[in-house]
Amino acid sequence: MMLKQISLFLGIILVVTSCNVFGGPKKPKDLISKAEMVAILMDARLISSANSKYKDTMQKYGVKLDTYVFEKHGIDSLQFALSNEYYAYRAKDYEDIYNKVTDSLETLKTVFNELKLKEEKAKIKREKDSLDYLKLPDSIRSIKMDSLSKNSLKNRLKKEERVMVKPVSDKDLQPPK
Fold first, then answer.
1. Residue 100: CA count within 13 A, CB half-sphere
2. Which of 2, 32, 39, 114 could form a disulfide with 83 if both were Cys (CB 3.0 to 4.6 A apart)?
3. CA 169 to CA 101: how far, in whole Å?
């Protein structure tokens, strides 16, 4: 009976000391910064979301889903794993990182929803304008078409480049209006 209690006690001590390796994992020499971890985790989340819906399209254009995020950020899987382990042991740091990821993804979602709404409104306006245009006499329609040049349309399209939203910081967060 006493042997069982001693064995149990030693087992518990062994588990506790092995899990708490004298202060946790050491800081890796190539530790990824918190800000970069936020960006990496955001990209990983976006890729995993897109993976389920657009997997074939991404592969068609040569996006290697399993290595894309690492290549984009210039890191390897070992560097990420060691940095992730380091931050995971420090719960406060890890919580800060994941709060910023969540906030950034919510901001990104809001931006895309606003863009979608804006595009829908523009589409409705174009359709209305097209119907109004068809109601014009032929002589006026030909004058309006000549005034639009292909170059002006190309220049307008070049200006409307899409830019990925960067992660937000705590100080950038503001309540929605």
1. 21
2. 32
3. 9
Tokens, residue 30: 């190539």
Q: Is residue 96 scored above 70 in pLDDT?
A: yes
What's the token pair of residue 69? 């995020």
* Residue length of the chain: 177
pLDDT of residue 20: 54
What is the chain's Cα-based Rg? 27
What pLDDT, in 10s, does the model give residues 101-159?
999 999 999 999 999 999 999 988 888 877 776 776 665 655 555 445 555 555 555 55
The pTM of the full predicted model, rounded to 2 decimals, is 0.58
Distances (CA, A) of 74 to 27, 30, 44: 19, 12, 14
Q: Which of 94, 4, 109 is nearest to 49 (CA)?
A: 109
